[in-house]
C-alpha cells in the first residue's frame, strides 16, 4: 500500500487476493476439472460447450475462471460480464465477475480514480452475489479479504473481516482458513506468523479431514519451517492419498525432498506425479528451484533438465510462467559457469515478461 498522491494511492492499493473460485455447480466435466485445478483441460471442454450454446451463463462464468487462472484479467472481466448479462440472477456469475474485478484491482497500476471505480464495481458484484446466495464461498472469502485489506475510507473493517471469516468457516473451512491466513500477512515476525498460519490450517483440517485443499495447504505451510518438515511430508502424503490427480501436494513433496537431499524419494515422487498429472509439471519446476536456492551444486544438471522439460509444454493455470522458468534456468546455468547461456535465458525471460524485475537485475548483473 502507498500515500494523497501518496495517501490516496496508499488507501486504494487494496490487496484483494483471488482464491481459486469454487466450482462445483452442475454436472459437466469442466466443473470437476476446474475444481481440481486442471484449467487447460477445462478450457477445451468449456469452449466446446460455448460453441453449442454461446449464451450459457454457467459456461461463460467457467470461462471467466479460466481467464482468471491464466491472468487474462480483462478477458475474465468481459466473460464475467457476459455471464451476468445472460443470467442477471445467477449468484455464480456475479461471484466470478467479482473475483475477476478483485484480481484486476489487486494487480492494477491504474490511477486513483480507476481504482475507486474498480472498488465500487467489486463491492457491487460481491453484494449481488450474497443477495442471491448468502452462502456463496467466493463472495464471502472476497468480502472477508476486502474488509481486512481495504482502508476504512472505502469500507475496510478488520472486525467485519473476522466476522465474515467466522461466517464462512461452517460452509467451507478451507476458504475461511485461506482468508484467516491472509489476515496474518501483516505480521512481520516470520516465525510467529508461520506458526499462526499452521494453526489456522490445522483447524481447517480438523474440521474436514478429507479436504484435499486444506491438507495440501497445511503441508505447504509446514514447509516454511525446517522444524516442521516431517509434518509437511506427512500432510502432503495424506493429501495425495485423498486425491493423487491434483498437483499441489506433489509439489510440496518434490520441494521438500530437494531441500533435504532425499534424491531417491524425489525421483520417485516426480515419476508418480507425472503419471498422475501428466499435463502439469509444476512439481519438477519446484524441485529445480529448491535445488537452485539450496546450493545443491551436484544436482544442478538435474535442475537444468527439469526446467528445460517444463518449458516443453504450456504451463497450467496458476502455475509458474515460462518467463519465470527461463529466469530460473538462467540462474542454474550461471551456477554451472555457463555465463553466455545464462544471459540468453535471462534475456528471454525479460522479453517474455517485462515485469520480472528480479530477472532484469540478474541480467544487468551478468552483462
Automatic annotation (TrEMBL):
Keyword Nuclease: no
KW DNA-binding (keyword) present: no
Pfam families named in the record: TPR_16
Alphabetically ordered keywords of this record: Signal
Gene3D superfamilies assigned: Tetratricopeptide repeat domain
Signal peptide residue numbers: 1-22
PANTHER family for this protein: PTHR44998, UDP-N-ACETYLGLUCOSAMINE--PEPTIDE N-ACETYLGLUCOSAMINYLTRANSFERASE 110 KDA SUBUNIT (PTHR44998:SF1)
Name recorded for this polypeptide: Tetratricopeptide (TPR) repeat protein
Amino acid at each position: 500500500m502507498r500515500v494523497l498522491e501518496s495517501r490516496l494511492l496508499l488507501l486504494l492499493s487494496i490487496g484483494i487476493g483471488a482464491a481459486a473460485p469454487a466450482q462445483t455447480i452442475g454436472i459437466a466435466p469442466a466443473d470437476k476439472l476446474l475444481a481440481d485445478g486442471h484449467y487447460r483441460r477445462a478450457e477445451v471442454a468449456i469452449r466446446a460447450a460455448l460453441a453449442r450454446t454461446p449464451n450459457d451463463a454457467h459456461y461463460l462464468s467457467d470461462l471467466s475462471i479460466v481467464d482468471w487462472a491464466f491472468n487474462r484479467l480483462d478477458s475474465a472481466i468481459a466473460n464475467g460480464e457476459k455471464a451476468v448479462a445472460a443470467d442477471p440472477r445467477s449468484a455464480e456469475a456475479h461471484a466470478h465477475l467479482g473475483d475477476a474485478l478483485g484480481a484486476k484491482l489487486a494487480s492494477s497500476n491504474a490511477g486513483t480514480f480507476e481504482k475507486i471505480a474498480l472498488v465500487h464495481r467489486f463491492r457491487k458484484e460481491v453484494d449481488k452475489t450474497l443477495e442471491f446466495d448468502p452462502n456463496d464461498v467466493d463472495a464471502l472469502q472476497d468480502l472477508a479479504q476486502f474488509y481486512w485489506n481495504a482502508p476504512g475510507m472505502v469500507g475496510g473493517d478488520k472486525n467485519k473481516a473476522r466476522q465474515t471469516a467466522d461466517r464462512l468457516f461452517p460452509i467451507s473451512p478451507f476458504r475461511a482458513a485461506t482468508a484467516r491466513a491472509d489476515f496474518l500477512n501483516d505480521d512481520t515476525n516470520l516465525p510467529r506468523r508461520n506458526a499462526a498460519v499452521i494453526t489456522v490450517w490445522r483447524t481447517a483440517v480438523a474440521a474436514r479431514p478429507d479436504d484435499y485443499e486444506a491438507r495440501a495447504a497445511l503441508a505447504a505451510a509446514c514447509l516454511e519451517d525446517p522444524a516442521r518438515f516431517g509434518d509437511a511430508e506427512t500432510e502432503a502424503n495424506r493429501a495425495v492419498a485423498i486425491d493423487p490427480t491434483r498437483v499441489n501436494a506433489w509439489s510440496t513433496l518434490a520441494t521438500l525432498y530437494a531441500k533435504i537431499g532425499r534424491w531417491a524419494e524425489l525421483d520417485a515422487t516426480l515419476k508418480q506425479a507425472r503419471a498422475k498429472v501428466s499435463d502439469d509439471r509444476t512439481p519438477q519446476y519446484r524441485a529445480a528451484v529448491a535445488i537452485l536456492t539450496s546450493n545443491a551444486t551436484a544436482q544442478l544438471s538435474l535442475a537444468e533438465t527439469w526446467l528445460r522439460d517444463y518449458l516443453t509444454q504450456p504451463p497450467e493455470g496458476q502455475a509458474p510462467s515460462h518467463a519465470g522458468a527461463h529466469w530460473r534456468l538462467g540462474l542454474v546455468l550461471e551456477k554451472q559457469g555457463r555465463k553466455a547461456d545464462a544471459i540468453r535465458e535471462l534475456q528471454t525471460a525479460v522479453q517474455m515478461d517485462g515485469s520480472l524485475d528480479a530477472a532484469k537485475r540478474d541480467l544487468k548483473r551478468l552483462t
